[in-house]
Amino acid sequence: MTASTNQQALPKEHHKIIGYTLATNGKCVENYGTGAWGAVIIANSEHGSWVLDELAGTQDETTCNRIKMAPVIEALKAVRKHPNFEHDCTIEVQSDSKNLVQGASDWIHNWKRNGWRNANKKPVKNREMWEELDNATEGLTIRYTWISAAESEMHQQTALRLSEYGLKAIGPARAFCSQFQSLS
User: Fold this and answer.
1) Residue 75 near residue 5 (C-beta atoms within 8 A)
2) Rounded to two decimals, what is the model's pTM?
3) Are 43 and 14 in contact (CB under 8 A)?
4) Residue 143, pLDDT score
5) What are residue 96's DSSP bridge partners?
6) pLDDT of residue 138 exceeding 80
7) Range(s) of the domain holding residue 71
8) In total, how many domains does the chain have?
9) Would you list the DSSP string of 91-121?
10) What is the pLDDT of residue 155?
């Protein structure tokens, strides 16, 4: 499930977009299970920055690594669809997942060259998600930045809150569905 909270049109006082920042986060109840994610899409111009959109989503039967990748993929798709999207600018992806940042910045190139095998010649875990991320970044200039949870800024905190709200919403909904199923 994916939801957009407030896609914004380009403000009149802002001119050409020179870059985007995607603040992303995801949380799992446990290492494997239900998870939720959030993303904040920020447009940058020579006159300042503004939030274009906030996204949130949930996944059943996911892992911590997968739920950290989901907001990046969905935010990249949303950026591409935005009416003011500029193809020739840099997109900075911020994440508190070192695995995501290193995997997307460095490891993915070797994995593809080695037939989606890691340095130990074993199949890459979550290959379908890495391939989806690779497809979402095709033709774009992407810079991945690791942001520690303790040093995160406002937009990163918003992405975290979106994922936390998603997890809170799933709990009551899942309890309601279980009660409903037990009545039938």
Assistant:
1) no
2) 0.82
3) yes
4) 97
5) none
6) yes
7) 2-183
8) 1
9) EEEEES-HHHHHIIIIIHHHHHHTTSB-TTS
10) 77
| DSSP-derived pairing of the beta strands 141-146 and 48-63 | unpaired
Query: Which CATH number belongs to the domain containing residue 112 in this structure?
Result: 3.30.420.10
Residue type at position 104: A
* Contact residues for 67 (Cβ-Cβ < 8 A; gap 6+): 26, 27, 28, 35, 36, 37, 59, 163
Task: Bin 115: left if φ > 0, else alpha if -120 < ψ < 50, else beta.
Answer: left
Dig out the tokens for 39 from the structure: 């993303």
pLDDT-derived band at 179, boundaries 50, 70, 90 = very low
Q: What angle do CA 157, 50, 136 make, to 5 degrees?
A: 75
- For 144-176, write each residue's pLDDT tens digit: 999 886 666 777 777 777 788 777 776 544 433
Phi, psi dihedral angles at 178 (to 5 degrees): -65, -45
Place of tokens 């998600």: 129
Q: What secondary structure does DSSP assign to 125-145, as a single string?
A: TTHHHHHHHHHHHTT-EEEEE
Written as one letter, the residue type at 115 is G
Ramachandran assignment for 182, one of left (phi > 0), alpha (psi -120 to 50 degrees), beta (any other): alpha
Residues 13 and 140: their CA atoms lie apart, in Å, by: 26
Tokens of 94: 């911020």
Which residues does 1 contact at the CB level (< 8 Å), separation at least 6? Answer: 57, 58
Say what the pLDDT of residue 178 is.
35
* pLDDT, averaged across the chain: 83
